[in-house]
Amino acid sequence: MTAPNVESDAAFRVADRLKRLAAPWDVFAERCRKYEVHLSAGRIELVRGPVQIEGYGIRVLRPHDGTISDGLQASTDFSDAGIASVTADAEANAKFTKFPARSVELPSTVQPRAVEIADPELWKDPAAALDRHVTQLLHSVEQEPGTSVTFGSIKVTLSETTLANSSGLAASYAHAFVQSEIGILNSGGNDDSAPGEYWVVELERRLETPQLPGKVHDWARFARDARRAGPPPNGQVPVILPADVLEGILPGALSFQFSGAGRLHEVSPPEGTVVGPEFLNVDDDGLIPWGVGSGPFDDEGVGQQSRQLVQHGSTKDLLCDLAYASAIGRTSTGSGFRRSQFGPPSWYRFTHSLQPAQSTISIPGGSGGSDDELIEAARDGIWVQQLGWASPSGSTTAFGGEIRIGYRIRNGKLAEPIRGGTVGGRLVTPSDQPSLFRDLVAVGRSPKLVSGVSVPSLLTKGLTVSSESAAAATASA
Amino acid sequence: MPDLRDHEEVLRQAVRRLAEHSPFAESMAATTHGETVSVDSKSRSTERPARISGAAFRAWAGDRWVEGATSSFDPASVRSAVEGLLPALRAGSKGPPPGESSTTVGRADTPPGRPMHDLGTEELVARVEEMRSWIGGPASIKVSFAQVQWGESERLYLNSTGANCFQRVYRTHLAIGAIASENGKTQQEMFGAGGLGGQELLDRVDQHKALDVATTVVSLLSAKEPPTGRMNVIFDPGVTATFAHESFGHGTEGDQFVRKRSYLLPLLGKSVAPEFLTLVDDGSLPGAWGSVAFDDEGHPGARTVLIDHGRFVSGLYDRESAAAMGSHPTGNTRRAGFLDRAFVRMTNTLVEPGDRTRDELIEEAKDGVVLERWLSGMEDPAGGQMQIKVARGHRIENGKMTDLLGPMALSGKVLDVLRNVKGISGASDFEMTPGFCGKGHGDYLPVGDGGSYVLTQAVVGPA
User: For A346, which residue in chain B has the nearest alpha carbon?
Assistant: First the structure.
């Protein structure tokens, strides 16, 4: 598959006009085109785009009392006066910034790494591809009895990223994001119960139009099952979390504790701390095909790679950008990213500040077998299909949310649907306390790529379920 | 700060051009400037909002809206954004869009007595450093932090029916917090405040509040696990505020009615809560974080009563949903920015104070938990469920507040939680809290929420 050409030279144009600026500095630029279709009550409500933005962020790094401080500013104004204003703001910010890095050496080259993050077919005619996708979505929903789309938005962003710095680096790549948010409602029929909805939220690198009929069939089933779902059992019961749920927990809970920022602030567990069973391995893979955090290099120009966060149950690497690596005496892991505080990247990034962050959290397939085998191993527990919002804490790794839809597991088989109540706990804890990792029973065989994770289903007995139900499951697994 | 009205003529021409091919067209331009100063135990940073401004253009194509945007006021860029919409408009029919088009002409710019921009970066850095230093604390506090963020935002709305609404909004937000860690266990505590205004808002943090943060975070290291299951719960004012937002906020957004996605639609006009409960959304609340002079369809920010003494009386409407519901726009159409679409959104949503005291509510609860310091909330407008996550709380035993509890999540059916409200504490407990709200999983914008102590029942568990 041939990657689309990068036509933008935005960072290089700005860098050309920074020749007289004292080194070190870098320029991160993006040209983005966004195409959106919004749905309401099964019809197209709004067509947006292309909404276009091209801008850049300048970072200057300045010595300050034996340490290095950075100053950033961003703009869409490429005029000489605009660049001068941005540079002045960045210098002013650097003057007041303090950070305990001793030296930050910007890369002069980056080894090109091929990673699939831009679909050439999508690039050719994004509006037409989006139109086909929406048509297929609405058609697939029509095939499901009693099912409709209440609302939805499909947003395609094509981005050309360019990066230049005072060490002579000039690099670029093209990539795409597809954000889908769809409300699938099941109502009517012989069932007089209230309508049920399954709320689909996906972030991907490409439009997966051929997969839509199968996906819609599953979504319709979850919406239908939500109508007859009862409360989950109460207490500490075996819980299976598939990738769709882990996507809302792992990146948010791990990104600070397993980073240079967490170590600098003395919150990360020391290297070699046992946080889970011997069979647990957790990586952060920046090169996984179609991963939303994947790319040939990070936002500082350091090549992306795979980092081992947990190896055989013990903590290992920390995610570092150049500044945090220097502050804690390590080297960058190619994990310096410009991110918004509200989640993974999906739109322009040049306005955001740099921080060490995850790419795609991945857990290799384990010996727990298929999902059916995990269910059999759980015996008596629950399968959580969707949590309302796990709201993970980066500093404490606590998470918890309402069960939107799940299934009771009885006698090693999926049984009736469940809904309501909460499931929560911690991802990482000291040895005397329960946690998702520490009380892991089995890791499933097949990782699935869902937004920011590529993980198999996990069976754990370290979470607490709270519900209306007086009944507790009998602990097994 | 550049004045958006300098670009009024080019925007007016753009709206006129769109109106040549559409029965209705509008533009919303926006820009912001300000500063953020963050200080923690190891580092300090200052940032200014990106120098980005631009405009969104929307026009009616007969059966749908078409929309584009530009991040430059350069006439060629504006023309390009507008011309890109014309093919879809030419293809559409000429029927008018549903609902009322604004004809409001107005200007709103009330600078605070002591604007933040007068303070200067050096002085602001010193103030933030001082705030952080107040936290102090024992060795188990690994991180203490303070942050002040201020912004002065301008919006200019124009449409083809003559509306011309300019507003300048001054928002200031501050937070202090700490992370404590001991024997591998970690806890976090913070305090935040914010609203429309300037330097006077900085006075909301003092040494007393900082000491509270330090004491609480250390105590949380030995907090007990919360009980699980259905029980009596008391919301602190911040949790009540989140409850107001999640319970009858998202479900009353009129677009959810049009989508047939709100379980509340059949309940309009009916009793949904005790007679002593009134819940409103108020975009005109002076000084509140989510207040707007005009919404992004050119309608003035306004007070809308959603639950009037227990009866569900209205939703929040943009032009389209108002038309569908036989009502009028309520001033709740908002865009997160000029690159984002318009939706029906909340402004400041609050449960009005009652006449009980907190201690009376605790005594009446007898057994249960107090939920304190909200972290997040989420509503399910179709299914009528909601969840709220809090950082801590207290056990209630025999009508007394006892052990400190760690993070908890609440889950329940909105109508059950509302109908089980047994009492609301008085105005002296009432607080407005600043926050950010997403529509679904995006489009975050500032909203305020308010309330005092509330006693009800819900399912609670650790989180």
Answer: B442
Enumerate the residues of chain A whose CB falls inside 8 A of the CB of residue B325. Answer: none
Q: For residue A467, list chain B residues with Cβ-Cβ distance below 8 A.
A: 228-230, 411, 459, 461
What is the rounded average pLDDT of the residues B264-289? 96
State how far the Cα of B371 lies from the Cα of B232, in Å rounded to an integer. 10
**Residue pair B187/B154 in contact by the 8 Å Cβ criterion:** no
Picking from B154, B187, B220, the residue at the C-terminal end of a domain is: B220
Determine, for residues A82 and B51 on separate chains, whether the beta-carbon distance falls below 8 Å: yes
**pLDDT value at residue B422:** 98
Are A40 and B259 a contacting pair at CB < 8 A? Answer: yes
pLDDT value for B31: 95
Q: What are phi and psi of A340, to 5 degrees?
A: -80, 160
**Which of A247, A257, A402, A429 is the best residue to mutate to test the B interface, defined by the most B CB atoms within 10 Å of its own CB?**
A402
Distance of alpha carbon B406 from alpha carbon B219, whole angstroms: 10
> Are B193 and B297 found together in one domain?
no
Chain A CB contacts of B409 under 8 Å are 400-402, 422, 424, 466
Q: Per the CB < 8 Å rule, is A96 touching B382? A: no
Give the pLDDT confidence of B63-84 residue by residue, as tens digits. Answer: 899 999 999 999 999 999 999 9
Q: Give yes or no for B54 touching A (CB within 8 A).
A: yes
Longest distance between any two alpha carbons in chain B, whole Å = 72
Please, which pLDDT band fits residue B241 given cuts at 50, 70 and 90?
very high
Residue numbers in B near A466 (CB within 8 A): 228-229, 409, 411, 459-462
Residue A473 pLDDT greater than 70, yes or no: no
Residues B115 and B255 in one domain: no
User: How far apart (Å, rounded) are the C-alpha atoms in residues B456 and B369?
Assistant: 10
Please tell me which residue of chain B has the smallest CA distance to A88. B48
Enumerate domains of chain A plus CATH numbers.
Answer: 10-227 (3.30.2290.10), 230-477 (no CATH)
Tokens of B391: 């950082």
Q: Give the CATH number, domain containing residue B44.
A: 3.30.2290.10
Per the structure, the complete domain to which residue B254 belongs is given by 229-462
Q: Do A55 and B71 touch (CB under 8 A)?
A: yes
Residue A471 pLDDT grade (very low, low, confident, very high; cuts 50, 70, 90): low
Residue with tokens 């290291």: B221
Q: Could you tell me which of B142, B131, B132 has the C-alpha nearest to residue B187?
A: B142
